[in-house]
Amino acid sequence: MTARPALAVLGAGTMGHGIAQVAAMAGYDTRLFDVMPDVLEMARERIEANLRKGIQRGKVKPEERDRALEGLSYSRYLGEAADGVEIAIEAVPEKLDLKQKVLARCGEAAADGALLATNTSSLSITALAEGIPSPDRVIGMHFFNPVHIMALVEIVRGAETSDETVARAREVAERIGKTPIVIADSPGFASSRLGLALGLEAIRMVEEGVASPEDIDTAMMLGYRHPMGPLKLGDLVGLDVRLDIARYLHEALGSPVFEPPALLERMVAAGRLGRKSGRGFYRWGDDS
What we know:
It is a single chain. The chain has 288 residues and is α/β, with parallel strands linked by helices. Helix content is 48%, strand content 14%. It is built from twelve helices and eight strands. An eight-stranded mixed β-sheet has the order 3-2-1-4-5-6-7-8, sandwiched between helices. Helix 1 crosses helix 2 (37-56), helix 1 crosses helix 3 and helix 8 (191-207) crosses helix 10 (230-237).
């Protein structure tokens, strides 16, 4: 039997566990890392639940589930997860210094010439690659939530990213069943910049009493054929993540469009982060 190519996903949260799932389903020897054991256990449960639902809906065959679970392993140690891998995808929280440290440590443990990808939705790829040996192999691979359903991967090319690295990232994206687009390294890239502008304006509309979250979301779904409204999407992504990106883009671009609404600041301070905390603009239960 041909050996599976080794791929590490660094960070087992909302995005990381989804990336690990689709990578394992695509035949990669997938190692999912997180320092928090409870996060790893939750990731395992969510992956297994997603695969069960896929079988129930006729989207996944039982043998596909079995192969995916067989190809998945979990680790609390970054060096162990990244040891000798050919591909690493970082998916830790949206903090520049944290992502740099994780990518640098991964670069030391991975195979020579390994692809080093970051799932950042807004941070500069060029900045993330600073201080990493062979920055030409660092690239953005921005996935969308939920990863096992959403078809797009935004490939973001930094100042030092090589043509070969772009081609390899495309190959990985296509192997896991995604459609890649290539974007220049600009604050917010394409999707986050546009999507956040819409999401923040929707929050301001709630703040001003223009309409309820449900009616605003319904307007975008039925009037503009969006599959999900901007407020429910914010809950799904995490309102703390939305706030971090808004702060970054407001500073980087200097545009009032990205100034965080006071309502968003208050909700995050109160722990109303969306689905992961059970409440954001919506209430979320275990079956949500």
